[in-house]
Amino acid sequence: MTDTPAALREAHHADVSGGWLRPAVFGAMDGLVTNIALIAGVGGGGVSPRSIVLTGSAGLVAGAISMGLGEYTSVRSANEQVAAEVAKERRELERHPEAEARELADAWVARGLPRDLATQVAEAVRRDPEEALRVHVREELGVDPDDQPSPWAAAISSFLFFSVGALVPLLPYLLGATELWLALAVGGLGLFAAGAVVARFTKRPWWTSGLRQLVLGAAAAGATYLIGSLIGVPGGL
After folding, report:
1. Of 8, 24, 26, 74, which sits with the fewest C-beta atoms within 10 Å of its C-beta?
2. Distance (Å, rounded) from C-alpha 183 to C-alpha 175?
3. Euclidean distance between CA atoms 84 and 145, whole angstroms
4. Among candidates 47, 46, 48, 44, which has minimal Cα distance to 226?
5. Residue 235: left (phi > 0), alpha (psi -120 to 50), or beta?
6. Is residue 45 within 8 Å of 197, Cβ to Cβ?
7. Do residues 44 and 176 touch, judged by C-beta distance below 8 A?
8. How confident is the prediction along the chain (237 residues), in pLDDT tens digits per residue?
9. Which of 85, 201, 86, 80 minimizes the C-alpha distance to 151?
10. Where are the transmembrane segments (predicted)?
11. How many CB atoms lie within 10 A of CB 93?
12. What does the angle CA 112 – CA 113 – CA 114 come to, to the nearest 5 degrees?
């Protein structure tokens, strides 16, 4: 079978613009770690299963809302900053097109392009104001002004995946179990599975990614369990 060069295939690169994947992964991991640690802490303090469900449910709702709002604000602020810089670059191109063309040519020369060729390309780009703006923004800011992440996509992804991650360690209690170790074990499986899924996007070994997330979550749960045990709750409320 003939191996088709990657450059001739459509979409041979994954989407790395950060629109939904980053907040989804971060949300799921944060939901898992947060509620595993929260359940371990209150469980270590000796509270009743009913109180653990209440605490975990509150952590799920509060955390999901916080994550969604935080992602929306963060992405929107970043997009507004990019828009402000693009507007600044547009003004510079309108006022000083020759100087901007020389700046672009200098950047390409610094990368190894011959001066004559760099100057010719910069002049050709300058003839189309919109293309000139896109090229200058990519070269000077390192971003694509036409491909910015959606704050709504980031917020919704973060909210939903945090909720799913935070629900995992609660499931045993919601299904009638009363043992803390079972909830922590299910949460650990969730962490390992989430890490393994992430490996599909990063092209790293699934088991190392899964173990890394499991170890990090276990460390967080161990710390909160210890604190909960030291503080304790009289009577196991």
Report:
1. 8
2. 11
3. 11
4. 44
5. left
6. no
7. no
8. 456 554 445 554 455 445 677 788 889 999 999 999 999 999 999 999 999 999 999 999 999 999 999 999 999 999 999 999 999 999 999 999 999 999 999 999 999 999 999 999 999 999 999 999 999 999 988 888 888 889 999 999 999 999 999 999 999 999 999 999 999 999 999 999 999 988 887 778 999 999 999 999 999 999 999 999 999 876 656
9. 80
10. 152-174, 180-202, 214-233
11. 18
12. 115
Predicted confidence at residue 230, as pLDDT, reads 93
Report yes or no: 32 and 210 within 8 Å, Cβ to Cβ: no
CA–CA separation, 43 vs 54, rounded Å?
12
Question: At residue 172, what is the residue type?
Answer: P
Q: How many CB atoms lie within 10 A of CB 1?
A: 3
Q: Helices 129-141 and 49-95, interaxial angle, to 10°?
A: 130
Q: What are the backbone dihedrals phi and psi of residue 211, each rounded to the nearest 5 degrees, phi first?
A: -65, -35
Q: What DSSP string describes 16-77? A: -S-SSHHHHHHHHHHHHHHHHHHHHHHHHTT--HHHHHHHHHHHHHHHHHHHHHHHHHHHHH
